[in-house]
Amino acid sequence: MKEFRESLAVMLGKAPRKPAPEEFTEGAKRIHQAQRAKKIDMEALRREAREHEKRHYWRNRRWAVLIVVNLLFVLSYRFDVQLVEGALTASRVLGFHFADLNSSLQVTLAFKQVLVNLFIGTTTVFLLWWVFGGRGFCSWTCPYHLLAEFAEKIHLKLAEKKLVTDHAFHRGVRTVFYVLFALLALVTGYTVYETISPVGIVSRALIYGPGLALLWVLLLLLFEIFYSRRAWCRYVCPIGLTYGLVGSVSPFKVTYDLDKCEHEGECRKVCMVPHVLECVIKGRAHKEHIDIGADCTRCGMCIDVCPSQALRYEFKGLSKFM
Amino acid sequence: MSEASKPVTKQTEPPVVNRRKQEERRRFLRSAALLTGMVGVSLLGFVPVVRGWNPRLRPPGALDEAEFLAACIKCGQCVQVCPVEAVKLADILDGFGIGVPYIAARDQACDFSCDGLQCVLACPTGALTHEINYPHETRMGLARLARPDLCLAMLGQGFKGVARGPDFTGKLRFDEVDRWNPIPVRDHPFDLEICDLCVRLCPIEIRIAQCAAGTPPSGDPNQCPPKRAISLEPMDDSDGVKRMMPVIHEGCVGCGVCEMICPVEPAAIVIDERKQWSGA
């Protein structure tokens, strides 16, 4: 329970804390001691990690899923096969209602009525992303996420050449955004957030054709390239936070094994939400097996880069059978 | 480094703690700026709504404008089911109305060729109210003869050829051509002694005629509109020219077919969005 609260607090903006000495289990202490005694060549390990990443095992699978899901929306409209009707904000999948949790929240607060179809749709989507790890929505489905990944690549290239620097914001600002956008919907009676939501904009542009709204998305991407790495997903998006809350109770997680970890730290460099990976820092893990926190998008980049299988996907309760 | 320069660098370089504090302060200010900026931009969406920059004809069954913008989840399922592709989604210049469906009647009106109000059925939130079942129950707006001086019927003129020219891509359903599939208007030429396109193609008037002939749409008498929507009335012909005037009645639902088909440029008859009947 304490860990659950801590993982929520970190997602909402609290800085991850170092565990107190009395929190360490005996097993964890032993491993830390052994690791301290070991002589290691960090440079070689980092090279090994980058070599390991090159297969992009999970990234390729994730991109394939993301593209196929969005393509299903596009093609089923183009060819009128009625497989997936609508956009990411709300849809019918084989006739069953699906509704994005955040869009539904905005509509419900603005319209001030609980709508049966949205209730059905959000329940379905909640269950879906409960199974697939909450913010799995972000990395495995959100079309803006994919665009932002390319922008991030450019940002990192430019940063390497010292042409740009990453300006971090306080992560708590996303929580403030969440509350503000909810209040704005309630007070103004309009779905204010939808006006700037790049997720809705990109999804609709793919399905119904491009519009001027894409210029706003372009502006966001430029902001991320030149000013602040992954700014929208990290510091603004209330959709991400909504799915993060689902992820906090999801059985599908990335998990960490202390005894396999070499602490070269490449996983934290590729991670969009590195505050969830503080436990991989040398001497930080207070127990041998740790579940990565709620804000994790289950994108698998850390798994791709980890050469020693210290990080992996786990479906709680199913590991016995696999 | 010489002995003399050392104390100087020490003085100019602030202590580490302060630098971290300074960075935290900067980060806080940056975050506040991000917050103000993003919320500010999103609130710009108010402007087109309050100013009424883009008055829109909404699909059948749309709630009152403010409620409609609130209830619409911006998914476009109504777009996908429309057989004549009359429903479009608004762009970011509509502010809070982004992603909300509208009908540009002059380009493509709603001719109810789905009969069953498919957009209403598709709407997951009831922004297009599920309380209506038949075309004549909707009230999207009201037709108005905005430019009587251009109206061919009032000039006593007929119409020959394709309405709106050979490049016009709009579609309508012509029961006598194909009951199930709308066809491009340009594939359906007319030869009329006096232009009566707005009356002839009015979906409500067509239904009234079908009901009068004992063949209501889908064989369902509930489809029969109780009130006339538009008719051509004779005018004073003391100058020897036979003239007719389109007159709009209470049964007009504002679907926009008359505006779409009106062969003169600009259209003589237009729809006033959301206008309600207030007497002849």
Helix content of chain A: 40-55%
Care to count the β-strands of chain A? Answer: 6
Shape of chain A: globular
- Count of DSSP helices of chain A? 15
Greatest contact between two chains? A-B, 55 and 41 residues
Range of helix content of chain B: 25-40%
By secondary-structure content and strand pairing, the structural class of chain B works out as: alpha+beta
Strand content of chain A: 5-15%
**Number of DSSP E strands of chain B:** 10
Strand content of chain B: 5-15%
Could you report the average pLDDT of chain B, rounded to the nearest whole number? 92
Outline type of chain B: elongated
User: In order across it, which strands form the biggest sheet of chain B?
Assistant: 1-2
Unreliable stretches covering 5 or more consecutive residues of chain B: 1-5
Topology summary:
The complex is a heterodimer of chains A (322) and B (280).
Chain A: H1 2-12, H2 26-37, H3 42-53, H4 57-78, E1 84-87, E2 90-93, E3 96-99, H5 101-111, H6 116-131, H7 136-140, H8 143-160, H9 172-188, H10 198-208, H11 213-226, H12 231-236, H13 238-248, E4 252-257, H14 266-270, E5 289-291, H15 301-305, E6 311-315
Antiparallel strand pairs in A: 1-2, 2-3, 4-5, 4-6
Chain B: H1 5-12, H2 16-43, H3 46-51, H4 65-71, H5 77-81, E1 87-89, E2 101-103, H6 118-122, E3 141-145, E4 159-161, E5 171-172, E6 183-184, E7 190-192, H7 197-200, H8 203-212, E8 230-234, E9 244-248, H9 257-261, E10 269-273
Antiparallel strand pairs in B: 1-2, 3-10, 4-7, 5-6, 8-9
